[in-house]
Amino acid sequence: MIPLSLTDLPLGQPLPWSLFDDEGNCVLGSGNIIRDARDAALVFRQGELCRQDSEPVRPNADSGRAGKGPLGLPVGTLLHAKRPEDNERAAASRLIGFMEHALFISWPQQGGREQAIEAGESLLLRGFSGQVIYSFRSTITAVCRSPFRYLVLSAPTDVEQIPVRKAARVPTRLAAFLGKEAGGEGEERLVMLSDLSLGGALLHAAEPAPTPGSRVRLRFQLRTAAADSELDIVARVRNLPGEAEDAGFPAFGVAFDSLGERELTLLHCFIYEQLLSGARLPL
């Protein structure tokens, strides 16, 4: 990753690369436009940003998902893994493939460092299918280092299902574009999503907040199961308590109108991947 400063951002023209936070989460995708220095300061408001050495080709979530493996977990699913005896935070991995009686996962990492793992060890894993959080146990049957580092696991055992009742509100750092409900050229402005739930979001803007009760259109991109999807949601502006205000960048809430099945599924997946990633669900 290459660290960026405010002066590195091209203003008024499409970004040549995506912007990432210090944990590797995409904040704003390439091709989007940061209008002026005020919007650039808004993007940097929550901390430093960086870009990748080269922009990789990402799979498009709308062009069709990869097949689902055991337990209904699709390839790309975020997994949290730990040894049964460990009391520390679980390491992060992803499901990269499967076959009969076997799973293939990326090498578990914690804080950007690969974990020391050997064949024959047992792992406890957790992943979100989009509807259910699964917890299960597998044994490492092979440790592979070529052409890249990954693990081969036995078929899941001791499977438990954790029902998903209502998605929590999770902190985020996502750039979005806010416009009038009717849309139109040149009417969108950059905002930052500070937290997100199935029902709405907290936003910060470089300009005064819209009138409470007004209807707006919010466009932003989510990454779920290693694929990017754009959401375009109609919402209603809500008042916020005084303590949520930011003198430099006004804060306001939005409540989402009725969401379609696609939007609900993507939000569900994103929120629970964030919960897993932040270890807010104990493993």
TrEMBL record:
Q: Does the keyword Plastid apply?
A: no
Checking InterPro entries in the record gives:
PilZ_domain, Split_barrel_FMN-bd, T3SS_YcgR_PilZN
Q: Tell me which stretches of the chain form a coiled coil.
A: none
Which residue ranges does the record assign to the PilZ domain?
165-272
Task: Kindly indicate whether the keyword Nucleotide-binding belongs to this entry.
Answer: yes
Q: Which Pfam family name is an example for this entry?
A: PilZNR
Provide this UniProt record's keywords sorted from A to Z: Bacterial flagellum, c-di-GMP, Nucleotide-binding
Q: Which residues form the Type III secretion system flagellar brake protein YcgR PilZN domain?
A: 75-156
Protein name listed in UniProt: Flagellar brake protein
The species is: Cupriavidus malaysiensis
